[in-house]
Amino acid sequence: MNQEVELLADLDYELPEDLIAQAPLPERDGARLLVCRRGHDHFEHRAVRDLAGLVDEALFVLNDTRVIRARLRGFKPSGGKAELLLLERVGLPEAGPVERWRALGRANKRLDAGARIEIAGGAIVAEVIERREAGELLVDLTTEAGVHAALESHGEIPLPPYIRRSPGEEDLSRYQTVFARTPGAVAAPTAGLHLSEDMLRGLEGAGHRLAHVTLHVGPGTFLPVKVDRLQDHIMHSERYEVSPETAQAIALAKREGRPVVAVGTTVVRTLEAVAREHGEVVASSGPTDLFIRPPYDFRVIDALFTNFHLPRSTLLALVMAFGGVAQVRAAYAAAVAEKYRFFSYGDAMIVLP
């Protein structure tokens, strides 16, 4: 039985800073892969390219969200620098010259209602409408070109803060999965970054099947836990969609005894949230604030392919819930000892039955 994790300190581990990957490898599918089996403390050291042969013919479920250029840097009328990280468009059914967004903000002084920020010399003007709990802002973005086009021209790919450099041309493609198609994420579903077109073809050629869900990665995934007791942590909601085709593919896999492999923690949250609400995976869409932590009774997935996650994060709690607290701690210790690369551009692990 998986032990309970109650305290934030239970999600801690030591990580040398030089193991945090700062850039992608030359080849998308060139990462190392730590292979774990639930209930065992023996690990194999393989390569991501070995993925097709590590599991019986399975259904691999991918998150097809597309990362938007969600980071905006500008100036207040006083001349002070200000920065916004857009989270989600709200309130308006269609895109247009004025859009309302949830956002996180940073400036030399607190951004309150009425604050204005000019981006790219006024090509985008942001006005803070409301300051909410946990520092979240409601902002109106105004631009003559239309907000989507303006973000493409003036926004930045929102690399995580542990990547200590500005985004470059390479990140426009590499911080995006090759199957990304539905814009809306403000962080990449990083497990999917390893899968090249050749790997996807190789999975299908080996008898595996592919299906897609959409979960627009937002603060529910990447914001750190700041409370000592995990039960007090409030997850931000993130929007998901499961198509009829994917629901049918999962139902067929279950009937056939075909393992369901989640490519990333965002896929796990999507499928498990739907199954908890409906009793099974059905075609549906909406928000989820599901926080998966040990112990947890998984209803859908049989295996998890994922990156290595930050200490004290909800993502590590999810992996521990699936793989076992002691086993995942041992796996992370082994990865550190073997100098695996960590986080978004790092290496990967797979947790098998």
What do these coordinates show?
By secondary structure, the chain is α/β, with parallel strands linked by helices. It contains eight helices and 17 strands. The chain has helices spanning 147-154, 169-174, 197-205, 219-222, 244-256, 265-278, 314-323, 325-337; strands spanning 32-37, 44-47, 59-63, 65-67, 71-75, 81-90, 98-107, 116-119, 124-131, 136-142, 182-185, 209-215, 238-242, 260-263, 284-288, 303-307, 348-352. The strands form three sheets. It has a nine-stranded mixed beta sheet with strand order 2-1-17-16-14-3-12-13-15. Strands 5-6-7-10-9-8 form a six-stranded antiparallel beta barrel. It has a two-stranded parallel ribbon with strand order 4-11. α7 (314-323) packs across α8. The radius of gyration is 20 Å and the shape is globular. The model has no long low-confidence stretch (mean pLDDT 93).
List the helices and strands and how they pair.
Layout: E1 32-37, E2 44-47, E3 59-63, E4 65-67, E5 71-75, E6 81-90, E7 98-107, E8 116-119, E9 124-131, E10 136-142, H1 147-154, H2 169-174, E11 182-185, H3 197-205, E12 209-215, H4 219-222, E13 238-242, H5 244-256, E14 260-263, H6 265-278, E15 284-288, E16 303-307, H7 314-323, H8 325-337, E17 348-352
Parallel strand pairs: 1-17, 3-12, 3-14, 4-11, 14-16
Antiparallel strand pairs: 1-2, 5-6, 5-8, 6-7, 7-10, 8-9, 9-10, 12-13, 13-15, 16-17
Helix pairs in contact: 7-8
